[in-house]
Amino acid sequence: MDKLWAGRFSKETDSKVNAFNSSIAFDCRMFREDIEGSIAHAEMLGKTGIIPLDDSKKIIAGLEKILKDIENGDLLFEPEAEDIHTFIESELTKRIGEAGKKLHTARSRNDQVATDLRLYLRRKIKEIQDLLISLTDTLVKTANNHLETIMPGYTHLQRAQPITFGHHLIAYVKMFSRDIGRLKDAKTRMDEDCPLGSGALAGTTYPIDRKMTAEKLGFDKPCDNSLDGVSDRDFCIEIASALSIIMVHLSRFSEEIILWCSWEFKFIELDDAYSTGSSIMPQKKNPDVAELIRGKAGRVFGDLQTLLVMMKGLPLAYNKDMQEEKEAVFDAVDTVKLCLETFTPMLATIKVNKENMRNAAASGFLNATDCADYLVKKGIAFRDAYKITGELVSVCIKKSADLENLPLEDYKKASHLFDDDIYEAIKLENCVLNRKSEGAAGSYMKG
Ligand code: ARG
User: In the predicted model, what is the mean pLDDT of residues 320-333?
Assistant: First the structure.
């Protein structure tokens, strides 16, 4: 294939440079968006009379046919083409001749790639949002079955206060809902400004209609500054940031799943379809899926770092460094999609061991705060009640007892305000149920 710039050069490009320079291996996935952008541009060129209407029609028909052929598998990408933009344009000219050569009037690959990438990411954001919605639906469904399932709540991974499994799951619903919102924000900003028509950097001398192309491609308006249009990739960084935060949430959740299905916890069991075995230890059932998601978080953070570092030193406007943005942001998108596609069904099929959760919550003095609160309700200042309860806990430890079965006389020795009703006040179910403040474990309970 002839180089676009063959006229200026007297020597062939070195074959290693060709391969090094080429991006078609990864930007070919934007073929739909490249064609969509080219159709909008060709229509505008025809309507404004920059090229004859007849040529514009030929170009559009040719592009539509190319799209079909790629989708059917009848047209394969040529690895020698430098990128998807060059490939589509030269394929068009191969097919329709002279008219094809007019498509690139009043545009540059620089505004083309900035447009294509936005269109592509718009589609991917929607796919990820849908996956997040299905994850939050699954979480809500599971949480609804466990609004009364007592489990230990932790701080510092030490048993702290009793909560319910439902309460715990809804915490993640909140996180993933904010993730959906973050993607929406990023998309709204990305959809504001259409870079098409920025040309290589300085705009164009042709009387183009940027409003028309912006509207056709679903942007709010043409970008206000042509240099900005072709040279920023903040939308990629913003999306990779939102994706990184999704991975933080998925990774924390995975870590908990890994802990919960260990013999030490035994709170849940993963379905066989979402677990793996060991090559040597016949008894093993491993949470590989959750571990891989935890591991892949690092990969997405790496993609974000790649984008930040790649952009930070670039003078305006376009620099070839920016070709690297695609592999990073594509990898982040692919990884998050893959993780969500696997995580949600894994979660939907877990078996919950309510008894073990309840038993774990029953030891470790998770009701100590409630014991102190009991005294506060009887008129003692919280700090004094806290101290008395601390002393009671140490009595329990000496006697190998729990607060639930410590005799009333021990309570009375600590404070005369204790009465028989202390045992009701520190019953685990009541500890949860009585926490009725907004967002508290008890606010989700039916009782
Ligand atoms: N393949 C290039 C990229 O992804 C397209 C833009 C090329 N522009 C240029 N002036 N070399 O960034």
Answer: 98
